[in-house]
Amino acid sequence: MKQILIYLALLTTHFVTMTYCGRCRYVTSIVCEDDFTNPSEQASEKGEVGPPGPSESQEINDSRHGSGDVRKTGSEKGSCPSKLFENDILRRFKNLENFVRFDSCTNSPIDGNQFLRNGLQVYCEDRWSIFQRRFDGSVNFQRTWDEYKVGFGETEGEFWLGLEKVHRLTRGGNCNLRIELQNFDDVHYWAEYSSFLVDSEADLYQLHVAGHTGNATDGFSYANEPFVTIDKYEHSPPRPNCATLDGNNGGWWYTFWNNCGGSWLNGLWGENGRVYWKGVNPRPKATTMKFRCD
Ligand SMILES: *[C@@H]1O[C@H](CO)[C@@H](O)[C@H](O)[C@H]1NC(C)=O
Ligand SMILES: *[C@@H]1O[C@H](CO)[C@@H](O)[C@H](O)[C@H]1NC(C)=O
User: Fold this and answer.
1) What is the extent of the structural domain holding 255?
2) What pLDDT is stored for residue 5 in this prediction?
3) Start and end of every Fibrinogen C-terminal domain (predicted)?
4) 130-172, pLDDT tens digit by residue?
């Protein structure tokens, strides 16, 4: 199935006959000499076809994400890369994403930034849509409502995808949420929720999660709440705003009646910062939030 998608993808470009599958693998017409459905095995068996050339080393640098390193290693050793992904082929054509669009990350074999059929730009990884990532504190997460709405940061670094996109991509239902945490002792945790959706802005991007599993506690146990930022929260009766309480918690789905709730992953970053997930001590250092819809 993957292969069919890729051939279709290649067919939609004008470059089909010029395409090759990697330094050692050439595409003749639209078929790779090697079957790249099982890249590592294939590469070791018959990867060493075809000469290297200057234009090819040039292209080794084109890979924008992940697999770039793998290919470079292969080139330095003068042997074929041990791993090739469909991504590399698709990525070769900078404009390919303008021709081939998938309806969701779930159906996209491409990792990285891409436009979906609905026009939204998302960041896909292993068929998940990544919507929050932090690991070094380089991006300020103390932001306004409008910034949390449209997103901020760079998808190759720390970022927040934007509540409006998360809403549009999850409103159809049948979405899972996965949260991955690494604390300052480098212990890893994960939590998944079998259902996840975010309401519209009119409903203050209220969170709906259920069905917790994982070895991180249920940090969202009280969090089916509206989103709150430093400049926007609506609560009746009025309560202190958890986004600014104790300094710098960032925008989140706070629970005002339960000490602000069991988590806030957009707080001030750092070992003595304000990033919080119930039961994760020391504090989370690296965080990823992602969803996948059926
Ligand atoms: C790849 O890019 C790096 C930095 O941009 C450069 O130093 C290197 O020579 C490039 N390699 C190839 C094979 O073009
Ligand atoms: C949680 O699960 C992950 C993956 O299964 C594992 O690597 C990690 O060590 C576990 N963490 C704890 C605290 O048990």
Assistant:
1) 105-293
2) 59
3) 96-294
4) 999 999 999 999 999 999 999 999 998 999 999 999 999 999 9
Q: Both tokens of residue 32?
A: 């790779």
Judgement on whether residues 78 and 178 belong to the same structural domain of the protein: no
pLDDT for position 240: 83
Q: Name the DSSP letter for residue 193.
A: E
Residue of minimum CA distance from atom 2 in ligand 1: 61
Residue (of 138, 142, 151) closest to 249 by Cα position = 142
Choose which residue among 61, 62, 69, 70 to substitute to test ligand 1 binding: the one with the highest number of ligand atoms within 8 A of its C-beta: 61
Q: Give the pair of three-digit tokens for residue 67.
A: 């697999």
Q: Rounded to an integer, what distance in angstroms lies between the CA atom of residue 60 and that of residue 71?
A: 6
Residue 212 contacts residue 221 (beta carbons within 8 Å):
yes
Give CA 129 to chain center in angstroms. Answer: 5
Q: Name every residue whose Cβ is closer than 8 Å to that of residue 18 and which is 6 or more positions away in sequence.
A: none
Any idea which residue has 């234009």 for tokens? Answer: 55
Could you identify the atom of ligand 1 that is nearest to the CA of residue 60?
13
Residue nearest to atom 9 of ligand 2 (CA): 188
Helix (H) or strand (E) holding 176: strand 175-183
Confidence of residue 237 (pLDDT cuts 50, 70, 90): confident
Are 130 and 36 in the same domain? Answer: no
